[in-house]
Amino acid sequence: MTEQEFRNELKSLNGGYLFYGDEDYLKYSYSKEAQRAVLDGSFDDFNHIVLYAEEFTSAVLEDAICSLPMMADKKLVEVRGVDFNALKKDELQGLEIALSQLKDNDHTVLIIRADSDYFNVGRLPKQPSELFKMVTKYLTPVELSFPSASRLKSWILRHFSQEKIELDPSLCDKLVEVCGHDMWALSNEIHKLCAFAKMNERTAITGEDIENVCCQTIEYGDFQLTNALLDKNRALAFETLYRQKSSHEPAPSILASVMRMYTELFLVKRLFDMGQNKAQISKATGIHEFKVGRYITAVSKESPKRLERAIELCREADIKSKSSSNVVSYIAVERLISELCALFCR
To answer: Which residue has the higher pLDDT, 116 or 62?
Structure first.
């Protein structure tokens, strides 16, 4: 289910929903919308049950699902902050038993807010994880990921409008450039800007305000290695790789992210050379416009043959990694990064 489909269903929520994806702000926001839709204002303290990691067990969840609402037709049960990846086999079996009770308890609406790091969904849509397949037998999955550039722009302008502060639409890109795409961070910075404007008895925000008031955010995170390679930063690439190795991140996972980046770079390069612009490439490939823009900058003058060679190097390293021990797999990754740096970092 898409975000829009869930929004359309808010007036008639039934059963259970799995909120997954990268954008935690949207998970929080739609949880609040669900509260307003399900709870009627009477006995809400009894009819809104929130289970956090510290108190979560399958037995507690089952009791929450099966208990009757107090003086109301429905109640809302939310699960937050649970590390589902760490659940043992018997705990997963208990979870499935608990979720199976939903069909016989239509007075309960259940929402599981799955943190990206705590719930492995696999590679959707073709290769969902066993966990994702089990949970979605009972819950409707709702993908809440980073919005498109146009939707993010509309969201930013709407937030300023609600505060009765003006922002020229052309400054939305600048705000995102400074603060990043994370909607929690953007929300906080928007509140700061609006407070700053009101304190100075102003009704509009300028580009200079954004530079002076907002906190700069560097968007690397889990993508720091691929970003370092994209920026041709050899030192940062190896520093990141060794940090990933010391934290025991699986070598195949590292390889997959690097291979995906060069495959996307090659695809963007071909479409860009055919005359397509950023928006057209994003629509054709499903890659976020912001990322497409970075890719275009990186490959506009790059040789297609070198990108093809990079993909071949990734494929060779992937074969070595999958047919070797963990130690040898990391060696294959290190050699790959060395070869990619030699190919591009000149």
So the answer is: 62
